[in-house]
Amino acid sequence: MESKYRNFSKKTIPYALLVLFAPFILTDDYYHSVMVVAGMHAIVVLGLCLVMGLAGQISLGQAAFWGIGAYTSAVLTTKYGIPPIAGLVAAAIIPGLFAFVLARAIAGLQGYYLAMATLAFGYIVQIGIGEWESVTGGANGIIGIPPIGFFGESELGMYYLVWGIVTILLIFSLNLVHSRVGRAYRAIHKSEIAATSMGINVRQFKLSAFVVGGMFAGISGGLYAHYMGILDPQPFGLHESILFITMVVIGGMTNVWGALIGTIIIEVIREVLIALSHVIPELKGDIDTIVYGAILILIMMFMPEGLVPRIRAVYAKSKASKAGDVQPKPERGEVA
């Protein structure tokens, strides 16, 4: 147990230093904005890692929970005058309730059927946001969403707020992985039948995984709404859900750190594509969707465990070979 937490601190200290000093390395406000959005995406992806990588439940509708959280906080603050912080709390609770209802409705589904059910849920939410004009503003959206006002409403203040929340949820996720709940999730991921035979309430734990993932996405959505100041239904569809899944897969679904690193990698690729589009006009439009899809296919074909678990396995193998030891086969269900 002691070595586990020593390793935990070895990983978190470089991460904390990087988060703390990154804005002073990339000083332009544009890069601060990119890092803020990357942090919001990281929150969603951490939740999706717990749902898919830890509990083994496929979700193609995570952008729907993101949208519910965004519109919850936006509506409460613009129409009812609720403070943004209270709106952010509601943005966590309401998507969590939606996730609870959805998880109860689809608790018996697995595999492709589960994927199709969550995909349908995502479409329903996006269409509902677009059609409920009296509340959401429909296609026109909502404008005038108040900023949270952290450290004077600056890009730097928002950066530290978002990445502070990322850090809190990262620590929560890492502790969850090594808890009794995390062990139950991994058992369900490997075999629901075996987990049931061990006395694990599969339905209850699957439901809790969806709720946690939905709440993470809702928190991110609330931050997104107050950061952007305006909302419309377009960002909360299948495109964003695929983006989140790509981030999880590229870093490693079964690894919490992998989810974070996968998010950063995709954000860097996104910025590279934007820069290239100014030079090559043909790259404008939906080229990013094609690139993300290609990355997803290549990762699943050649590196299904993801980038971080593969690097760890290669490092462990080289270290063992130098020591003259035989490297044991790594567990596919590792979630550190």
UniProtKB/TrEMBL annotation:
Keywords recorded for this protein, A-Z: Cell membrane, Membrane, Transmembrane, Transmembrane helix
Subcellular location(s) per record: Cell membrane
GO molecular function per UniProt: branched-chain amino acid transmembrane transporter activity
InterPro entries: ABC_transp_permease, LivM-like
GO cellular component: plasma membrane
Chief localization: membrane
Keyword Transmembrane helix found: yes
Record's bilayer topology term: Multi-pass membrane protein
Keyword Transmembrane: yes
PANTHER family the record matches: BRANCHED AMINO ACID TRANSPORT SYSTEM PERMEASE (PTHR30482:SF18), HIGH-AFFINITY BRANCHED-CHAIN AMINO ACID TRANSPORT SYSTEM PERMEASE (PTHR30482)
The protein's name: High-affinity branched-chain amino acid transport system permease protein LivH
Organism: Aneurinibacillus soli
